[in-house]
Structure formats: C-alpha cells, structure tokens
Design goal:
This protein is an alpha+beta fold. It binds 3-thiaglutaryl-CoA and flavin-adenine dinucleotide.
C-alpha cells in the first residue's frame, strides 16, 4: 500500500492509496424497494466516502484529529439537511434518502456521520421547524453549504439521560437574554460557528436559543482523551453571562418536546448509520475469510466462521428491513418515538455485536488500523450511549407497551 501525506492545520495527515473495496450486502433485494434517485444518491455518497474519508480516517482517528476540511465538502454533496426544503439550501429529499446518506457516511466512520447528522437533524431541523422566517433565512443556507458548522447543546454534566432536569438558564433583561450554565459532550462544539442551546426561562420552561461564536462569555473547551469517535470534535459549551439577542430565541415551540422532536430525526439517521458500520465490518470479515488461509484452506471454509458470517448477514438483513420500513413511515409522518427507539437501539446493538465477531474473524489483524473493525467498534461505544442510551430506548419501548414510564 502507498501512503502520501498532507499538512492539515499544522498536523501531518497520511492518505492511504489502497482501494476501499466495500460492497454492500443486499440479501433480500431491498434495492427493489428503492427508487432510481435513492440508488443514485447512494452511489454518489459511496464514491465520496471512498475518495475523501476512507483514505484518511484511520490516521485522523489515530491522531484524534477532526478533518475540518470535510465540512464544506459535505455541504457540496448535500449531506447537510437533506430533508430541509430547497428554498433554505436543503436537499428537499425524503427520509429514505436521508437514511441512505447517513448509512453511507457512517459506513466510512461514525464520527463523520455525527458531524453530518448533528448539522442536519439537530441544528438545521430545529431552526427550520421552530425558527422565525428571519432565522431560517439567516442560518439555514450557510449551514447547508457548510459555511457554518453548528452544534446542539442539550446534555449537561449532571443531566444526561434526564434532560428535563437541566439547570442552564436565561433571564429576560428587557432588550436581551442573559444566559448562564454549561453543556457537556457536545459534538462539533470546539469548531462550531453556532450552537442551538436548550435552556430554562425564569418560569422553568425549556426554550431553544441560537448562540453564536464570538458572543462574550461563550466558550467551547474541547474534550480530550476519548477512545471513541476520535475523528469527531467533542467539547463543552460554557455560558458565563452571555448576552443573547431576543431575536435568537426559537419562537415556534417550547418544552422538552422541542429538543425531543430533533432527537427523533437524529435517532432515525443513526438507525441507518450504525447499520452502515455493521455492513462495513461484515464486508471486511467476509473478504478476509475468503483470503486468509489456515490449515491449507480459506478460513471461510470452516463451519464456525460460516456461522459468524451467516448470523451477521441475518441481523443485517432484519435491520435493513426495519430501517426501510421506518423510513417509509417517516415519509408518511406517522413514525412514533418508540418505533424510532426500536430501530436505533437494534441497529447499534447488532452493529456492536457484528464488530466484535468481525474482529475475531480477522484474528490478530483485526486489532490493527489495516482494517476498519476496531475503529467502528470503539465508535459504536459512543453511538450506543448518545441520542439516548441502549437502556433508555428499552424503557421508551417499555413505556409504549405498558403505558407505564419506568424512568423515575
Ligand atoms: P417525558 O415526561 O416523557 O416528556 C416530557 C415532555 O416532552 C414530550 N416529549 C416529546 N415530544 C415530542 N416528541 C418526542 N419524541 C417527545 N418525547 C417527549 C412529552 O410529551 C412531554 O410533553 P409535555 O407537554 O407533556 O410536557 O420526559 P422525561 O423527563 O420523563 O424523559 C423521558 C426520556 C428519558 C425518554 C427522555 O428524556 C430521553 O429520551 N432521554 C435521553 C436523552 C437523550 O437522548 N439525549 C440526547 C442528547 S443529544 C445527543 O446525544 C447528540 S449525539 C449526536 C451525534 O454526535 O450524532
Ligand atoms: P447517564 O444519564 O448518567 O447514564 C449512565 C447510565 O445510567 C447509563 O447506562 C444509562 O442507561 C443508565 N440510566 C440513566 N437513567 C436510567 C433510568 N431511569 N433507568 C435505568 N438506567 C438509567 N449530547 C448533546 O446534547 N449534544 C451532543 O452533540 C452530544 N454528543 C455526544 C457525543 C459523544 C461522543 C458522547 C459520548 C455523548 C454525546 N452527547 C451529546 C451526550 C449523550 O447524549 C449522553 O451521554 C447520553 O444521553 C447519556 O447521558 P450520560 O452520559 O450523562 O449518562
């Protein structure tokens, strides 16, 4: 394999020239359920990932480096806000297209998908859904093109699974709001131009506010030492008497339901995305099983390896059908939060299990950056926790089944 290098922000980033040989499994011919436009979108995003992400991603993860230059490129290929109407710079596409885009990007890397899904579902979506016309015109086209990068601040140091307890708050000062508090574990925060921040009013009601980089008292310290999502920039949002113009409050909806609606959209994207990571692990394991010779035979000829591959394909096929059907319901506007929880929880759980089995099939090579397995596995440890943990989604389903919420 040949390796060349480029300088990015003073850091040497290596670019592998070995081809990315990914082929997607489609055992139940789910392609027949897609339109020509869906397939065209998929092939263009797949080409982009093979060209722009696969050659650098292992090195970026090794160096814990967020390749910021990907942001305008995501804008160019329409990865930001695919479902937002064209008049605001979005793609005007359906939810299946959105799912496909997230799947192809996360096939490359979960951290890269985080960058895209936070921008689309957690920054552009709330501005589109709850913002004033002036806010939509001001921010959405710049977010769609990648001129602006955004982040979403819901989680706080003491309030993760229980966001309704948040303490970040704002006071009405007559001609502006005064924002205080902090958010933690925020994807994109160290590089973001704007943050959609959820905070309580003096009446204790949750509202969304758009906070811009450069507002005095607003800082975004980076979180270091992550062994997961290493190519994604994660950080805090700290508000120390930040003066936020009144025109930056999202007027359309208040209460926890507003950020939860954004999470419905983002969790849907993750259901497709994590499946992309699972398919990349399966594809690599299948190929390795046919190429690796032990006891004078390809290891793929042994029953135990075939069992692993067969079980992987079974879970992938089931999850593909769940995601596709959920996409159809999203398009019809009838997918419920619990239906989305089932898909997010299932895709991430099967992806983690497939990554672990694929790691075994690759033997010792599976722990190296020659193959994508360990990187996907470590990334998925974040994906199983963010946007609602594995157990929180189980409880959302439990509440749907019984009518009894077991959170508190
Ligand atoms: P609960 O009493 O159930 O609800 C409070 C109010 O919110 C409303 N609501 C919804 N409305 C619309 N859509 C939804 N999906 C809604 N879910 C809830 C609900 O109707 C109620 O309204 P109202 O008017 O009656 O007050 O709330 P709870 O406090 O009991 O909490 C429920 C729980 C635990 C399910 C929920 O809070 C939860 O999902 N917790 C997990 C938190 C989470 O997912 N955080 C994600 C942070 S963002 C992130 O991780 C980004 S990672 C990005 C990346 O890099 O990809
Ligand atoms: P906790 O809520 O403290 O949970 C700890 C454990 O307790 C979990 O196993 C959980 O399932 C369990 N638990 C909690 N409550 C219950 C209960 N009622 N019943 C049973 N078990 C329970 N947040 C944002 O707002 N924006 C972002 O962009 C963002 N990006 C992130 C990026 C990364 C890399 C990570 C790791 C997190 C990110 N998050 C973000 C935060 C993420 O959403 C939270 O980590 C997640 O919601 C869980 O909160 P917590 O970490 O505080 O865990």
């Amino acid at each position: 394999m040949q390796v060349t290098s480029t300088q990015q922000n003073g850091l040497e980033i290596k670019r592998k020239t070995a081809p990315d040989r990914y082929e997607m499994p489609d055992f139940y011919q789910i392609d027949d359920l897609l339109t020509e436009e869906h397939k065209l979108i998929r092939s263009s995003i797949r080409d982009f990932v093979k060209r722009e992400i696969s050659p650098i991603i292992e090195d970026c993860c090794e160096k814990a480096y967020f390749p910021e230059s990907i942001v305008p490129k995501f804008g160019e290929i329409g990865a930001f806000g695919p479902t937002i109407p064209v008049e605001y710079g979005g793609g005007g596409l359906d939810y299946i297209s959105y799912g496909i885009i997230m799947q192809e990007i996360e096939r490359g890397d979960s951290g890269m998908r985080s960058t895209a899904s936070v921008q689309g579902s957690l920054v552009m979506y709330p501005i589109f859904k709850f913002g004033s016309e002036e806010q939509k015109k001001k921010y959405l086209p710049k977010l769609a093109s990648g001129e602006y990068l955004g982040c979403f601040g819901l989680t706080e140091p003491d309030f993760g699974s229980n966001p309704s307890g948040m303490v970040t708050n704002f006071k009405d000062m007559g001609d502006h709001y005064l924002l205080n508090g902090s958010k933690m574990w925020i994807s994109n925060s160290p590089k973001a131009d704007i943050a959609v921040v959820w905070a309580k009013s003096e009446a204790g009601r949750i509202h969304g506010l758009i906070v811009e980089r450069g507002m005095p008292g607003f800082t975004t310290p980076e979180t270091h030492g992550k062994w997961s999502l290493r190519a994604s920039a994660t950080g805090e949002l700290v508000f120390d008497n930040v003066k936020v113009p009144k025109s930056n409050l999202l007027p359309g909806k208040s209460g926890l339901g507003a950020p939860m609606m954004c999470l419905d959209s983002a969790r849907y994207g993750i259901a497709w995305g994590a499946l992309g990571a699972a398919m990349d692990c399966y594809d690599s394991a299948r190929r390795y099983a046919m190429e690796r010779i032990q006891f004078d035979k390809p290891i793929g000829s042994f029953q135990l390896i075939q069992k692993k591959l067969s079980e992987m394909l079974t879970e992938i096929t089931k999850a593909q059908l769940v995601c596709w059907r959920l996409g159809v319901m999203m398009n019809e506007g009838k997918a419920s939060t619990a239906q989305i929880s089932l898909a997010k929880r299932n895709s991430v759980a099967i992806a983690l299990e497939i990554a672990r089995e694929a790691r075994q099939i690759h033997g010792g090579m599976g722990i190296t950056g020659e193959y994508p397995i360990m990187r996907h596995m470590m990334n998925l440890e974040s994906v199983v926790t963010y946007e609602g943990t594995h157990d929180i989604h189980l409880l959302i389903l439990g509440a749907e089944i019984t009518g009894l919420a077991a959170f508190k």
